[in-house]
Design brief:
Length: about 120
């Protein structure tokens, strides 16, 4: 049986809005684990607007590859260490918003415990 990672890596390049929607919704299920998901997916989600003209170009291909890489790469989350202080980091733009609960692990190393 094919693993989830393999199925994402083999996901075909979308050829219409239905396929874009399928991929973006699948990736969106894991959005809390992908930093700046909204910004990364924006070139693809623009194709889902009612007035959008279908045109798969370089920005959409780059977004597709970035999301596939983010979904199949090494995890970027760590278990929280309740003996250390937490830091809430937030960010917003016109296409998305996000937040991360982080911890300083010493020696200049910071880990993310939760990403929203």
């Amino acid at each position: 049986m094919e693993s989830l990672v393999d199925s994402v890596q083999r996901f075909p390049v979308p050829t219409d809005t239905t396929e874009v929607k399928r991929f973006v919704h699948m990736a969106g299920f894991y959005r809390r684990f992908i930093p700046n998901f909204g910004s990364k997916a924006a070139p693809m989600t623009r194709l889902l607007r009612k007035d959008a003209v279908w045109r798969w170009a370089e920005p959409q291909q780059e977004a597709f590859e970035q999301l596939k890489k983010a979904l199949t790469g090494k995890p970027v989350l760590a278990y929280p260490d309740f003996s250390r202080p937490f830091k809430l980091v937030t960010d917003a733009s016109q296409v998305g918003l996000g937040a991360a609960l982080t911890q300083d692990q010493g020696k200049g190393r910071t880990t993310r415990c939760v990403r929203l």
